[in-house]
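Let us begin with a simple case.
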Amino acid sequence: MTDFGRIVTVLSMVLGLGVTRLLLGLVTVFRIRRESPLDWVSLAWAAILFTIQLQYWWAITLLPSVKPTFSFPDFIFLVLLTLMLFLSAALMLPSRSEDEKNGLRAYFEHDGRYALLSLTGFLLLAFLVNIFFFKSSPLSAWALTDVPMIVLPVATFFAKSRKVYAALTIAYLPLVAWDVYIS
């Protein structure tokens, strides 16, 4: 197995756990839908996170064409990046029906919104990967999309008003769609 083969195996295992965790959260939300009201904001962020997870999984397959060899610090950095996505997935949706008894909105406001901080961490680290691994200019067109994608989740986390964090969520959706389109 090549260096990249070992790296992509570890990253895919952790990423696969994150995708699984997010999907199990959706199953939990589905199972308790009769007792607890759904909330579109947390479901929108879950969809955004799922999209970002798939994009990242696709992007790691491009790494050997850009960087043929990897050092141990490179590996640690990539693992940290992947762990940030796992943490986001683990926090985004409830994993037990007991966590959801007050509704998905209450879960998101009390616990789920912390996923947005780790998502911001992932996006910030990914910004650095684009600069150092892919040798992209931080002044290029992708940065115009990445900067608001980094700022809006943390702004949503700190927003106290439902109207404000809902508006920030709506503003984020076209950014993700554009990011998928250009990548």
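The second case is a distinct protein. As before, the sequence precedes its structure tokens.
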Amino acid sequence: MTFIGLLWKVIYLAIFVTTLYALVEAVRTPAQAFPAMDKQTKGLWVGLLSAGTLISLGAVMGWFVFMTILALIAALIFILDVRPAVRGIGRPGEGPYGRW
């Protein structure tokens, strides 16, 4: 394997880890937090991020390489926009400034 090929594998692995992290955060977030902050539904985000995680895993294995950028875009939108907005809403034992 050449250096460039190894570099692409590392990039695809980083994208996979990013999409997996976004998926776990979407699953952990309560469903009522999404409409409360005027975001799309939890089901939509979990579905998009699940597909993105599978696509990025496929890129690590050498398939779906051309669709990996779409998986990364969905994960980054969730991490940078949706997650900060819905974070902490509806989680028991947490107030607006952290744990009680």
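Helices lie at 3-28, 33-36, 42-61, 68-86. Residues 3-28 form the longest helix (26 residues).
Keep these points in mind for the review questions at the end of the chapter.
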